[in-house]
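Translate sequence into structure tokens.
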Amino acid sequence: MTFDAQALELCEIRDMHFAYSDRDTMLYALSLGMGADPINAAELPFVYEGAGLRAVPTMAVVLASTGIIRRTGVDLSKVLHGEQRLTLHRPLPVSGELLATSRVAAVYDKGAGKGAVLLLETKARTLDDQADGGFGGPQGAGPEPHSIPARPPDTVERFATRPDAALLYRLNADRNPLHADPKAAARAGFERPILHGLATYGIACRAVLKAAYDYQVDAIRTFDARFSAPVYPGDELVIEIWKNGDHVAFRARVPARDTIVLNNGRCSIGAPQ
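Result follows.
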């Protein structure tokens, strides 16, 4: 079927209200595997309020999920999340209330029988904030992927995902049955339920925080990556990291299948604005 691109670009949700607590902040970190080592003092502040609770920066992408994709009328069974870009204008509070505005920023035709690319943008701000902080894709032409250095990575981090990782992560926001129901996964062409792309994205943020920034969440300004292959709960993830001055490049692979599952990653640092 075809759809009206001009009508899609008029699709918008304005000032949807969201509230989250320290419980949500700890649940998000736990769903990324933080706290698996109960005596890891560096990760304890992400899962225990008594250690000076911090929010993992990538939690921003699940806090204000407006569900705008459902407003577009596209066939959700044929939708794939291809890329995620995040910009933080200030550190993410560990609890609070948000107002989020989402829109279809652009629609790109890939040709007959090949589908289309929808660029969705969400801007969120706290209730006491007059300036717009945002996350999502930029306006204009489709974003070019970030390049990965040709040299060997400076750091490699390994994380074993839990067999029930998708069931845990879906409690953050995305309850798509693709991540829980074996029958739904089979209809989509997968041997079993797959892990959320945003879970892999969050695990990559955990790796970058550990390897490059000593868990200093305030340092992260942007966090971008492209989803290149599915991850199954229970897979071991290897995150390769390159340090390049004011930013790091990263990608994730599943060594058991010799498959890159997250690519073209870039995390930049800078003073919040």
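Note: The radius of gyration is 18 Å.
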